Amino acid sequence: MAPACDRRGVSDPGLYGPGSVTWRVHADPSMALAGLRALFLQAVHPVAMAGVAQHSDFQADPWGRLLRTADYVGVTTYGTTLEAQRAGARVRGIHRRLSLDDPHLLLWVHCVEVESFLSTAVRSGLRLSRADRDRYYAEQTRNAALVGLDPTDVPSSVAEIDAYFERMQPELQVTPEARRAATFVLWPPMPSLVAVGTPARAAWVALAGAAFAMLPRWARRLYRLPGVPTTDAAATAAGLALRSGLLVVPERLRHGPALREAKARLKIA
Hints:
By secondary structure, the protein is mainly alpha-helical. It has one domain (21-250). It contains 16 helices and no strands. Helix 2 (31-42) packs across helix 12 (200-213) and helix 4 runs parallel beside helix 16.
């Protein structure tokens, strides 16, 4: 049942609310790293990768695609119930038009995203108990329902997520398309003046390399990318450093508009 709210949604906390683990995880600075990790992990499913290659505009407009994904996560996390439902309906409509509404693939994308968000946040220093982690996955079944999945079919605990990825591994491989996509993410095109005259290139390579190193060992072995740092210790150190650096940034600059609007709506300081 949707939370009670007035006609403007003023008192509606949305799908989760400020007391949820989802709010804590999705507001964490590590989400930038987690989003890239999810891209690398999603690509090791050959059918999912083929769909991305055929229908996505990622390589033509990578920054726009990342921003649209971040906006969707923000709206479904912090928006009103109605806003989240409308965002989910738009995604379902796109999937239907492109014949990308196979529950098996939708479940893969969902599990990749939520596992990436949670595991990256924890490795980067967000303190969550095992009960908190289980609760996060249980909360995220609501997001799975937005894209058309039956919540009862969606892993809702750490143990269930671990078992899901164990079952999926025989299906997974890195196709040439996946390898090209990973290389693109690790070394995207930049204007010469930006790449040479600013630290943007080095900063991006460090961020994307850390995201890649955050992958499970079995996924890194599938890629076999030479020259990319792949040790768990290096990935964790990078995540801790990134999170620590961003935590000193004022919240008004660190948090996106969806969270700021939710706090205003719910009168949270």
